[in-house]
TrEMBL record:
The keyword Signal does not apply. The lineage of its organism: Eukaryota, Metazoa, Chordata, Craniata, Vertebrata. It is found in: Cell membrane; Membrane. The chain crosses the membrane at residues 24-48, 55-76, 96-118, 138-162, 190-214, 234-257, 269-287. This is Olfactory receptor. InterPro entries: GPCR_Rhodpsn, GPCR_Rhodpsn_7TM, Olfact_rcpt, Olfactory_Receptors. It comes from the Eukaryota. Keywords: Cell membrane, G-protein coupled receptor, Membrane, Olfaction, Receptor, Sensory transduction, Transducer, Transmembrane, Transmembrane helix.
Amino acid sequence: MEQRINVTEFVLLGLTQSPQGQKILFVIFLLIYLVTMVGNLLIVLTVVSSPTLHVPMYFFLGNLSFMDAVYSTTVTPNMIIDLFYVKKTISFQACMIQLFTEHLFGGAEILLLVVMAYDRYVAICKPLHYMTIMNQWVCTLLLLLAWTGGFLHAIIHILFVYNLPFCGPNVIDHFGCDMYPLLKLACTDIHIIGFSVLANDGAICVVLFTLLLVSYGVILRSLKNLSQEGRRKALSTCGSHVTVVVLFFVPCVFLYVRPPSTLPTDKSLAVFYTIVTPMLNPLIYTLRNEEMQNAMKKLWIRRRK
Ligand SMILES: *[C@@H]1O[C@H](CO)[C@@H](O)[C@H](O)[C@H]1NC(C)=O
């Protein structure tokens, strides 16, 4: 009978083996993580405590920032701490938790971007009905849908990987637990199913990305009905939204729409979407948004009094 020894922990190779490189990465990632947390939590705080921002668009933005902060926390601190260890290990359980949270928040965020596009579509193309369509109940429902979608997405992946036999080797050439490296380590030949799970992700990515680009196209077309001032504001908001959409979906498409194999560029791509993107969102939304900046200033003045 076949003997199966199940792996209880994985060894991560990390981004680099050189001690000098690890020191540099430590400084860079720590800075990025701090900026990510401060930026996103500042947005959450501003949205929650500024009555002028109590409208759907900012509620969604606040929720997006919250997800960004948590998403980044599921991977980055662990990776920063790992830079101190020569042998980086992660237990099987911790690996599964990381995989789950990453897919939960990643999935929910992508769906939230769709919700935000719908919100802008209603605001710009159906301004007279905006208040009735996007009422508190609908906002909550849309958020719930995003979370449910993220949850289903994560649970499918985790159930699949959890039931794979891992009988060694247990070395992951990555800085965290991710689908591709894990599938490579499984010691049965169900890679085909595994990669079809990923192909499915790829298809969802492409469909949503196309849908989003089309919606912003429709929004742009209807801008000609607006006043000059309205058009300027709408262009600036939608510009930020589209930038964030591109930041999210380009890695997603690169990662999933391709032949089933691990590529050398995977690690740098993963650094980008797990570590850098969550930092960029708050920058994109605050640097170009006067309403947000004013609310932040007011908050700051109120605190100092
Ligand atoms: C998230 O959205 C809900 C409902 O729209 C809102 O009540 C809540 O304040 C938002 N959270 C943040 C952090 O913006």
